[in-house]
Amino acid sequence: MTSAATPSPDTTLAPDSVPSWILEFIALAAIWGASFLFTRISTVAFGPLATAGLRVGIAALVLVPLMLLRGHAGAFAQHWKTVLLVGVTNSAIPFVCFAFALQSISVGLSSILNATVPLFGALIAWMWLGERPGGSRSVGLALGFAGVALLASQKTGVATGQLDIASALGVLACLLACVCYGISASFTRRYLEGVPSLVAATGSQVGATLLLAPLTWWFWPAQTPSSSAWLAAIALGVLCTGAAYILYFRLIANAGPSRALSVTFAIPVFAVIYGVVLLGETVSAWMLGCALVIVLGTSLSTGLWQLPWGPKPQDEQP
What we know:
The protein is mainly α and 318 residues long.
């Protein structure tokens, strides 16, 4: 699962870094695609709240020592309130939402819905920061949300008049997570400008851990989880959160925020493959078609490409 928050990177783009960032891009998409699979496995044994709590707690244990070794203790002390707060919308709520959703919807569907993060990011930046999209970006927002509506109506049974409450709640939970990521992006741009990326990543996991710790304890499963569930939870914390955040901010530094954000489009490819191969999930032509519409709309809304008419992204006025 990808966050939309993009704090200032610690390093600058190196001229010879192109081969490196391509490999990092693919690795990050594969890792975050696997997060949906590991969340599904972990949630069956631990439940949504304990799964999310374990994920952020393990990630914090990975990131805090690294942050201290990098000499960022002073920056954390200066901005601790803000970076802890961003953990609520950047990690705690989204991770709980996706864990809840994966009880009733597929790994592939949840990952496709996660691809709407840049859509909500653009919409919230417009409402909060006044960054009004124009031309191609407005078309992209409309197209992307239309794709979400078409996909959700079919998967929840709305289109056939037979509403599946569990699936509907799962879809809504995924979209709430994406809204939270969008809020985090604007919050980060407004209040964490210039804060080292590792400090923001670490602080968000610590803040989420403090919030979820009591809930994790209260909702801890009565039956001892299996070793496979524990391995999935550890993989979520160490690989899909701790290591992935480090890789994500390296990608921002080496390839730029736009390319880093576009990893959201590649995540469903890996997640769908994992779901089909390892969980026996099925993927319909309708689902793939809606996914294509969402990706096209999202890429337009973020300015990764533009329609042949209308103002260019750099010419659009906020």
